[in-house]
């Protein structure tokens, strides 16, 4: 008996010691394991699709939900409730119109230029029901970029929202010359060559088109094209397969959302966050989403209270706007328990928690065209995700040393890249058949938490959008007085991302014309890509490999008291680029001047 008690005591002591050791040395072990097992379970289901050639797509899941919960609100938009059945039937009507009147066929690529509204989803689903791939066009891009997008994806048909038809005036003739047919979500059209859809939808059948049209045997079949800012000029079409769409649709579920949650989606649907994670995630769960045409900081919390929102999507800039709103007694009066997004700065994160309550912020790191994803399931403030032993077994990535001055990876004598030490900042590479350069500088601490540090190369982020510096530079280069231009992003205290700035050399015999430059950028560049600051230089600095030197320019910023070059700032009131004075500089830092 004594011996048995001794063994029992030893066992209890051993288990207790192991528990204490695990808590001290591996405090996140069980949370990591449970989360990874959950994700792996979903991954196994996707892998089975590959083996059986029986693919259950996001659209199939939507149709399934429309049959299971037909009367449940799917989308609430500007006070109107649209049930799963409503969206299913309207998308059927559109599918029939596309099939019979527009003559679209399985395999066609269709460009979609629409703002956030329920019909965006109905058009998207209607096209998908025919087996067509859909190219989501950024509603802010201008003529040259818009025409380029058609060539990228091979689309021969454009469907445009009623509120965006006038924006086509400058390029409509070019579209028609390229034999691109344009259909507007209107009942009547002022343009004789722009066809109308709404009048035809009302008369169409709401019966489903044959299921064989949407059927696919491979998860690798492309179903969407989402445009991202490339590093070499105009927007790039990232090909989205069914596999990627299905992975993104599991995001809310992976973080613990359920069908009882109400999602708030204020981000543009033409980006993958709102469409793939937001709408796809809502469909996967059978939940309800509140779709906002455009984010409004002043309406955000009243919307959340009105609709009992529990989960919202964000980008870091959105949270900062909310923190900048006047404090009210109702700041913590809401049911929001979770936010899912990316780009949330540590100081804004802390302020957001202090102001609006302990909402779990689930950062997601990934790119539309990339193959690596980090998910901050622990909720550690200031981190984009977490790696561990289990994660590294499934996903291969490396952080390598990067020379910011030369704007290139550091190589050893044999020409190989060098890994950074724990805690050091390095360039993130993810492995597929080869290594993919993400263009992001990251750091991984001793506990495996990963922090985003900066972007490198020719892309920066402003107003929630990626800005390709070479595209902006090419556009500015069309101005007659500009001989050479170097575009980059600079940090502004209290703002997310980087604001656009252009160092330029004026052609001999000509002078800088701020008014002419203002008119040019207003006409040819979206708001987020317009340079806020101009720096006139005599000589353009180059790297040892004959690239334009950006690092020194980025570091020096836009402070007129420390820069001897002439500086100008974009002024919307005066419709001009005006000299950047110390007074204007201080008003920008004090957030008195709206950017």
From TrEMBL:
It is found in: Cell membrane. Residues 64-387 form the AMP-dependent synthetase/ligase domain. InterPro entries: AMP-bd_C, AMP-bd_C_sf, AMP-binding_CS, AMP-dep_synth/lig_dom, ANL_N_sf. One of its GO terms (biological process) is long-chain fatty acid import into cell. Keywords: Cell membrane, Fatty acid metabolism, Ligase, Lipid metabolism, Lipid transport, Membrane, Nucleotide-binding, Signal, Transmembrane, Transmembrane helix, Transport. GO terms for molecular function: long-chain fatty acid transmembrane transporter activity; long-chain fatty acid-CoA ligase activity; nucleotide binding. Pfam families: AMP-binding, AMP-binding_C. One of its GO terms (cellular component) is plasma membrane. Its EC number is 6.2.1.3. It is an enzyme of class 6 (ligase). Residues 1-17 form the signal peptide. It comes from the Eukaryota. It catalyses: a long-chain fatty acid + ATP + CoA = a long-chain fatty acyl-CoA + AMP + diphosphate; tetracosanoate + ATP + CoA = tetracosanoyl-CoA + AMP + diphosphate; a very long-chain fatty acid + ATP + CoA = a very long-chain fatty acyl-CoA + AMP + diphosphate. Residues 471-547 form the AMP-binding enzyme C-terminal domain. Its main location: membrane. It is a multi-pass membrane protein. Belongs to the ATP-dependent AMP-binding enzyme family. This is long-chain-fatty-acid--CoA ligase. It comes from Cottoperca gobio (Frogmouth). The gene is slc27a6.
């Amino acid at each position: 008996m004594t011996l048995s008690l001794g063994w029992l005591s030893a066992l209890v002591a051993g288990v207790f010691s192991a528990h204490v050791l695990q808590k001290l040395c591996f405090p996140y072990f069980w949370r990591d394991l449970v989360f990874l097992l959950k994700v792996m379970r979903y991954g196994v289901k996707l892998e089975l699709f590959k083996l059986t050639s029986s693919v259950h797509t996001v659209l199939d899941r939507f149709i399934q939900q429309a049959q299971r919960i037909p009367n449940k609100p799917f989308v609430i938009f500007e006070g109107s409730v649209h049930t799963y059945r409503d969206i299913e039937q309207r998308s059927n009507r559109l599918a029939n119109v596309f099939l019979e009147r527009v003559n679209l066929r399985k395999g066609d690529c269709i460009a979609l230029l629409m703002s956030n509204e329920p019909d965006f989803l109905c058009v998207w689903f209607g096209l998908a029901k025919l087996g067509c791939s859909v190219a989501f066009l950024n509603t802010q891009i201008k003529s040259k970029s818009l025409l380029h997008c058609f060539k990228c994806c091979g689309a021969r048909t454009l469907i445009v929202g009623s509120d965006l038809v006038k924006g086509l005036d400058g390029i409509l003739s070019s579209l028609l010359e390229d034999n691109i047919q344009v259909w507007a979500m209107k009942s009547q059209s002022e343009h004789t060559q722009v066809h109308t859809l709404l009048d035809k939808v009302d008369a169409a059948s709401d019966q489903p088109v044959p299921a064989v049209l949407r059927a696919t045997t491979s998860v690798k079949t492309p179903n969407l094209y989402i445009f991202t800012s490339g590093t070499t000029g105009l927007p790039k079409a990232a090909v989205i397969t069914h596999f990627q769409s299905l992975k993104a649709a599991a995001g809310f579920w992976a973080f613990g959302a359920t069908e009882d949650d109400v999602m708030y989606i204020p981000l543009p649907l033409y980006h993958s966050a709102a469409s793939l994670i937001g709408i796809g995630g809502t469909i996967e769960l059978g939940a309800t989403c509140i779709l906002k045409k455009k984010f409004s900081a002043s309406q955000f919390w009243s919307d959340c209270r009105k609709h009992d929102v529990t989960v919202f999507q964000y980008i870091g800039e959105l949270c900062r706007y909310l923190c900048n709103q006047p404090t009210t007694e109702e700041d913590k009066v809401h049911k929001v328990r979770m936010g899912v997004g990316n780009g949330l700065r540590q100081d804004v994160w802390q302020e957001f928690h202090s102001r609006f309550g302990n909402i779990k912020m689930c950062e997601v790191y990934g790119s539309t065209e990339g193959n690596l994803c980090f998910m901050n399931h622990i909720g550690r403030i200031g981190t984009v995700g977490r790696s561990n032993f289990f994660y590294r077994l499934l996903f291969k990535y490396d952080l390598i040393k990067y020379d910011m001055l030369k704007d290139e990876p550091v190589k050893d004598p044999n020409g190989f890249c060098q890994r950074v030490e724990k805690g050091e900042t390095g360039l993130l590479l993810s492995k597929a058949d080869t290594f993919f350069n993400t263009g992001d500088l990251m750091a991984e601490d001793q506990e495996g938490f990963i922090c985003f540090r900066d972007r490198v190369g020719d892309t920066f982020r402003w107003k929630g959008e990626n800005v390709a510096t070479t595209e902006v530079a090419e556009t500015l280069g069309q101005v007659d007085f500009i001989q050479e231009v170097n575009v980059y992003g600079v940090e502004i205290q209290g703002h997310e991302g980087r604001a656009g700035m252009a160092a330029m050399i004026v052609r001999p015999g000509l002078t800088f014309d701020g008014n002419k430059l203002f008119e040019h950028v207003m006409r040819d560049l979206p708001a987020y890509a317009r340079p806020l600051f101009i720096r006139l230089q005599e000589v353009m600095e180059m790297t040892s490999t004959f690239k334009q030197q950006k690092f020194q320019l980025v570091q020096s910023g836009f402070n007129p008291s420390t820069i001897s070059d002439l500086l100008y700032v974009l002024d919307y009131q005066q419709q001009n680029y005006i000299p950047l004075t110390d007074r204007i500089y201080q008003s920008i830092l004090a957030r008195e001047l709206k950017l």
